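testing teh design pipeline on a random one, pls ignore if ur not involved
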C-alpha cells in the first residue's frame, strides 16, 4: 500500500500509467491473501477497497494538476499579451527586444534587426464616429493582417492605442522596406466592420 500511495502522488500527471502500475503492484498480495481464505480474505477485500480509493484520489489529483497548469498558462498569457488583439504587449516586447539586441553582437546568429513602427492614420475618427466597438474590431483585423503577412520569425506587439511594433530579425534595409510596403498595402485595403461600415 505504501508503494501504491507513492505511485499515486508521484505519477498524478500520468494517471493511466499510475493506475496500471498500482493495479499490477496490488494483484499479487491480494491474490495471496484471498487464497488463504478466512480473515485474510477480509484483508484482501480491504486492500482492494484502499487501492480503489487511491485510484480515485489519483484521478482527482490529476484534474487539480491540469487546472493549476491551465491557470498558470492563463496568467502567463495575461502578463505577456494584449487582451484585445492577442499580440505581445509592451512589457513582453521590451524583453524580446533586449534579447534580440543581445544577438546583434558580431558572430551572433542574427547580425541584423529591423524594427517597424506602425500606427493607423485616422483611427481616432473611427472611434469617434462609429464607437469603440468598431475601433476594437478594426484593431483585431489589423492584428490578423500583421500575423498573416509577416514572416513567422517576426515579433509583433501592440504598444497601446493604434500603435504596433514589429521586430524582423535578420532583415536588412531592403527586405525590411519590402516587408513594410507589403504590410501597408494589405492594411490599406477596404475592410467591412461588424456594423457594416467600410
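output:
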Amino acid at each position: 500500500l505504501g508503494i501504491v500511495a507513492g505511485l499515486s502522488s508521484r505519477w498524478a500527471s500520468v494517471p493511466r500509467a499510475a493506475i496500471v502500475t498500482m493495479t499490477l503492484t496490488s494483484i499479487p498480495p491480494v491474490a495471496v491473501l484471498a487464497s488463504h481464505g478466512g480473515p485474510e480474505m477480509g484483508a484482501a477485500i480491504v486492500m482492494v477497497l484502499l487501492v480503489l480509493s487511491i485510484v480515485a484520489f489519483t484521478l482527482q489529483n490529476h484534474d487539480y494538476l491540469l487546472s493549476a497548469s491551465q491557470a498558470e498558462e492563463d496568467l502567463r498569457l495575461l502578463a505577456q499579451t494584449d487582451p484585445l488583439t492577442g499580440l505581445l504587449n509592451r512589457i513582453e516586447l521590451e524583453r524580446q527586444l533586449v534579447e534580440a539586441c543581445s544577438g546583434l553582437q558580431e558572430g551572433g546568429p542574427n547580425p541584423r534587426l529591423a524594427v517597424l513602427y506602425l500606427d493607423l492614420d485616422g483611427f481616432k475618427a473611427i472611434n469617434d464616429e462609429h464607437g469603440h466597438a468598431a475601433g476594437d474590431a478594426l484593431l483585431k483585423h489589423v492584428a490578423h493582417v500583421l500575423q498573416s503577412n509577416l514572416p513567422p520569425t517576426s515579433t509583433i506587439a501592440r504598444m497601446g492605442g493604434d500603435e504596433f511594433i514589429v521586430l524582423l530579425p535578420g532583415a536588412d534595409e531592403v527586405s525590411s522596406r519590402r516587408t513594410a510596403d507589403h504590410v501597408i498595402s494589405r492594411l490599406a485595403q477596404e475592410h467591412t466592420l461588424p456594423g457594416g461600415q467600410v
